[in-house]
Amino acid sequence: MKGGMAPAAAAVPLATNATAADPYLSVLPSWIPLWIVHVVESLIVLLVAWGASKLVIRLFGRRLAQRFERPSLTRTAIRGIRTSFFVAAMVVVLNIWGLALGDIALSVTVFSAVVGVILAPIVGSVISGLFLLADQPYEIGDMIQLDESGKRGYVEDITLRYTKIFTLDNTFLVIPNGTIRERDVYNFSAEDPRTRLSVEVLVTYESDVPEAQRRIEQAAREVEGVIEGGPSIRVGASRYQAAPDCLVSRFADSGVLLNLRFWVRTPYHIPTVRSTVQENVWAAIEEIDAEFAYPHSHLFFDETSGDLDVRQFGGGDGSGRPQVRSNRPRSGGPFEDGG
Question: How far apart (Å, rounded) are the C-alpha atoms in residues 241 and 234?
Fold first, then answer.
């Protein structure tokens, strides 16, 4: 057409493009905005993803638990299934709003490059979580203790980012996996929950030490939770006596130091068992010809100490305090009478 006029057919209305992209929009009232339609579509996709993930977990969750045999791996696999459904749903939602898969990949690449430094600790925790799941230093339900803080509690959950511990003080302790891998962790529940404890008892040299040893061992055996006897307990290549035994540790300044060693069946009530054992040991020592030793201090005077006046109202200064009269010769000074 002359005059440079564009053909009329080249102008395509926006509504026609939207209808071509979403054919079902032709059946909706024209007064409904397009963004509301996209919001509804996004909600439907997310609900479908949520329902599908729950259905798959319900169908295959038991099989996963039987296959992995570890609660931490089972929970991680279930979280992975749920996350994969929602990631797929988010891709569909972004596509609904006009972002193609190539645009999404480019945006993710740029975003990762920008915030890579910020996400580095999170990525490190995730990698540490993978190592924790592979190395199996502890499992959900185990009682562990952190060496630095002395906190003791039960492992409540293990994720790829953190470990949640339910402490004995009825508090939650959440530790990033990157941090907990650098700590010394004592596991009281792994392999064999039996734990050996020791209590030191100091008796005087005048005590009947053999009888004290026998009664102390008997006092420990009477406590509920203490292993009374039986086959020896194997720890690595060594074997230890299962029954309580009381050995002479050393000859101290104030008496003979005895070391009572005993095993408890479970590590969950260690303070209570230890306290009960010590109460029984106290009662056993009181019943026999033995006595607890403790440091004594003896004060004595010799020929260089002077005389101590212990009269009730002694003292020439009128203070009523005992006065010490020294027999030592005093060195003369410029203000002292030599006589």
Answer: 9
d(CA 42, CA 244): 68
CA-to-CA dists, residue 123 to 84, 127, 176, 305, angstroms: 18, 6, 11, 75
Nearest by Cα to 268 from 171, 188, 151: 188
0.90 surpassed by pTM: no
DSSP 292: B
Helix (H, G, I), strand (E, B) or coil at 222: coil
The DSSP bridge pattern shows strands 238-240 and 245-251 to be unpaired
pLDDT tens for 136-159 read 788 888 888 887 667 888 888 888
The first and second tokens of residue 259, run together, are 């070391």
The three-point CA angle 332-336-339 to 5° equals 80
Q: Are 171 and 236 in contact (CB under 8 A)?
A: no
**Annotation: CATH topology of 135-187:** SH3 type barrels. (2.30.30)
Dihedral pair phi/psi, residue 297, rounded to 5°: -120, 125
d(CA 152, CA 210): 37
Topology classification of domain 33-132: Helix Hairpins (1.10.287)
